[in-house]
Amino acid sequence: MKVAIVGCGYVGTRVAKNLRGKSDYTVTATTATPERVAQLEDVAQRVAVLKGNDKNAMAAVLQAQDAVLLCVGARNPHSYKESYLDTAKTLISVLQETPTVKQVIYTGTYSVYGDRQGELVNEDSPVAPANPNGEILAETERILLAASSPNLKVSILRLGGIYGPGRELVKIFRGFSGNTRPGAGEDVTNWVHADDVVGGLIFALENRLQGIYNLVGDVSLSSRELLDRIFEAHNLPKASWDGSPSVRPYNARVSNQKIKAAGYQFIHPEIREF
Fold this sequence. Notes:
274 residues, two-stranded parallel ribbon
């Protein structure tokens, strides 16, 4: 199978490396940064420099591909439209002229559920983005799903916060140790290990999943519980909380039952870094 991975950052690079190790896959990796070409040549048979709004470059990448994994990320809060929405629009416009592609899988985020006051949500829950960038992410999903057809499966994986090698939780949150955080720490967090992001993507690819699937671990911890466990495990001072209203734009307990019912078995169902 020929697979193009559009966006080879933390997630895309790991997926490329995994697929290249399988004899029945040929991987094309893309990057917007020419300096990363040599690095990606170690994990993919073919590497292309691609900006998401470049239709000609996208068409060249997708030529004769069987599947596309859209693993883009924004460099900063001001680049969401370019990174997500513009890339999705370009991809869909090119797919209309690329009949070989039968599967598109997009790594989105559970943040599109917005602030649900910690309530349980699943894939049938309406999205409620809390800010303009959340609206961009929700619109990106809508554009991709609208391209579904009998000949093209489109799958949206709504990821939890990603942790794993190089993104250990203690590294992410060390700066909070011993400091006072806004709120009461009661907002709910959802995490997924990098191994399960790779595993979930490959599962969706090999099973030709269609539609929306949450890809988060089994356990949703409050911010206070998460930080307390991290800092206790690493003998660091705990964070304190000022009790002010929470400013976190998304707060929901996310169900992963749909993807498990489809047959995916989590490698790390519970957070493993405590």
